[in-house]
Amino acid sequence: MTDGSEPLAPDSAGENAAARGSVTRDAVWGVFWAFLGTMAAKLSWLAALMFLTRRLDPAQFGLFAFGLVFITYVETVGDLGTGAALIYTPRKAEAAAQGTFLINLGMGLVWFTLAQLAAPAVAGFFQNPAGEPVIRILSISFLIKALGNTHDALCRKEMRFKARLVPEVGLAVGKAVLAVVLAARGLGVWSLVWAQLLGVAVWSAALWLVVPWRPRWSLARGQMVPLLRFGKGIVAVNVLAAVVHHADLVVVGRMAGATALGLYQVASRVPEMTVTLAVWVLGHVLFPAFSRLHRSGADLGAGFLAAMRWIPLLTLPAAAGLFLVAEPLVVTFFGETWRPAAAILQALAVYTGIRSLGSHSGDVLKATGRPGLLAGLGVLKALVLVPALILAGPLGAVAVAWTLAGVTVATVLLNLTVVSRLLELSWHRVARKPIPAVVATGIMIAGVVALQRGIPELHPALELGVAVITGIVLYVGVLLLVDRGVWTEAAAAIRGDEAGAGAPEPSSSEGARVAS
Predict the structure, then answer these.
(1) Which of 91, 245, 255, 301 is deepest in the core (most CB within 10 A)?
(2) What Rg do the C-alpha atoms of the chain give, in angstroms?
(3) Concatenated DSSP letters for 447-515?
(4) How many other CB atoms sit within 10 Å of the CB of residue 196?
(5) What whole-number distance in Å separates Cα of residue 385 and Cα of residue 390?
(6) What is the rounded CA–CA span in Å between residue 31 and residue 311?
(7) pLDDT of 212-258, one tens digit each?
(8) For residues 107-114, average pLDDT
(9) Average of pLDDT values for 442-462?
């Protein structure tokens, strides 16, 4: 590489192992704290959503979603990738953070201004003029979030995920409380809009409390160039990720209208609070962990294989469970009005389960300084996915969700193949890692389906409880039979032992360090 960020060569095998053990321990605890914070945040919003879905109709949720989709797309470009560059760079954090902060402030103002100008056109695209004021007010979040983005990146760079508990939980709790209060007073869609802004404000303020770094109104000469050089690749990756991960919302909103989009958005919240939550948390931890391993010269192949083993253990049973209990879950949590969202939820559960299998491939490519390759893979997916979703759009929201799942099968296989070759890992070695999770999940599905067909019709809440308990017992029991070492290895990873440091197999020429 030309920016001085070459990985350091290890002085000895012992130092390599020590580095891997230290990063693994930090990564495992990072996953724990990040998961705890995100779970608390999601549960607080789920509690609010149970109230809000009984006070707001699907069309109001859809109107809010119009504005949120636009904000989400712009935020993918928001900081020009400098947050990821700050995490990646081995340079002194102070100078890089200073440049990141100033770029964030400038771009926050730019995006706010552009949003004010673009609001009528966006509302016209979705054929809903009522969305214009929603977009204008939501765009204030660009200014607020710009103040906290650098502090958040510093937290992630240093893997201080315990410290991130306060801002993450503060965002969700503040948003949930205000949304409930305003909805109870009859503010309709504006209860969601103002709550979103308050949540972002609490998030930024809390980050300033937990991160001691403070900006200065000066910038070291030449500091912008390295940040923007790496960041341009991240921007491309993020834009493409937004296209492929939110194109379904755009298609549903444009072709099916606000009510269908409201049903789709609420249905998507359920896997987002379970399967996608695990993927999001792991991604936030794996990128800095892989970056640290790469800089130290340690073996990334072992870490990649460990991810292929452990991620499906969490995500596959959760996705399968959502598919099996979609209808009683929707009716129990959101009410009878939202029953049509259950079929959408089933398709999205399958999609999130498949997507989770390849989610960490992107973290490897970013950590090894290859965002351009990741962007190229995103282009291929977008070229296939967007036309497919447009074709499915006239058939309804359920068809859009199943199309999303189908295309994701092919793109996950492509991502895994590319990264496996990059790390010099055989496809057989990669593919066998999720087998224990697949077997245990398959038996769990068979058991729950047999139970559902064998018992009389129950109240939705009772049916949900029985199915969940049965699924958990079956999955854990089968997993202990097919993968007896799972708990021992987890404990070793927490301690940072070499045996649990993401290298369950003896090292070989496979998984050799990737040179930038």
Answers:
(1) 301
(2) 23
(3) HHHHHHHHS----HHHHHHHHHHHHHHHHHHHHHHH-TTHHHHHHHHHHT-GGGSS--S---STTPPPP
(4) 23
(5) 9
(6) 11
(7) 888 876 665 556 666 666 556 666 666 666 677 778 988 998 898 88
(8) 90
(9) 90
